[in-house]
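stuck on this one:
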Amino acid sequence: MSKPGLTLHRLDLFLAVLDAGGVARAAHARRLSQPAVSEHLRGLEAFFGVPLFERAGRGVRPTAAARLVEPFVRQALGLVKSAEQAAIELRGLRAGAVAVAASTTPGTYLLPEILGRFHTAHPQIALTLRIGDTREVEQWVAAGSVELGAIGAAPVTPGLAAEPWVKDELVAIVARRHPLARRRTLAGAALAGQPYIAREEGSSTRAVAERSLADLGVTLRPVMELGSTEAVREAVAAGLGVSVVSRHAVRARDPRVVAIRLQGRQWVRDLLVIRRQGAPLSPAAAQLRELLLATH
C-alpha cells in the first residue's frame, strides 16, 4: 500500500500551525476551515508514521516528532522557494524577494541604509529584514528561512560560511553626569565595580564585551538585562548603570549619554555576513551579498 501523498501545501500548513501556535489561528491566517487544516495534518502524520500534534486543553501542541522534522521541512520549503526565486530572477531581477536576518547592531544601524540602496537599484525585489540575537540569526540562516545573515561574532552553528564585512568598535557608555563621563579613554578594568547594564544572553555584543573584560581579569555581574541596545542606552541615560555597546548605537546628538573609547585592540571586532555553506544563493541574494561586501 502506498503512503499518502506528501505535498508542499501540507508542509506549509504544518509550519503555519507551528508558527501560529494552533490550528484555529493557522486556519484563520490561511483562510481555510479548521477541519481542512486538521485533515492535511492527519495526512502528514500518516506519511511520517508518527503523531505530530497532541491535544492540550482546547488546542494542540507539537510533539517531539514535530520538532524533529521541523528544521527539515523548513529547509525543504526554503529550497523550493529558492528554486522558484532563481527562475524568476533569471529574467532580470524584475520580480522576487530576498529575506535577510541580522543581529541588533547591524540590523538596526547599518543594514537599513544598504537595503535602501539595493531597493533603489532593484525596486521590484521585495526585501525582508528579520532582527534577532546572533544565535537566532544563525538558526534562521541554517534552516533556510533567510538566505543571508549579519552578525557580530563567529558563528557556532555548523554548516555556515562567514565573511568579514565591516569593522565595529565597542565603547563604554555612561550617563552625562557619571563620574567617568569626562574621560576620553578608559581601561576596561575601570568598569569593575560599576553597575552593569547588559544585553540578553545570546547577544554577540555582550559575549564579545564580557570575553574581552574576562581577558583583563574583570568580571561584571549584570544588575539588569535588557532585550535591545536601545533599551540599554535608555537605562544608561537614566543613570541606572554603565554598559558596553557598538559605537554605531550611540547617537552623537543624544546629550544624555557619553561614549568613551576603551583601551586595547580587543574592542574592535568584525561584523560578518553569513550564509549556508554549499547552498547556492538566488541571483538577487547574490547581488545583495556583493553590495554588502563592497561596503566597508
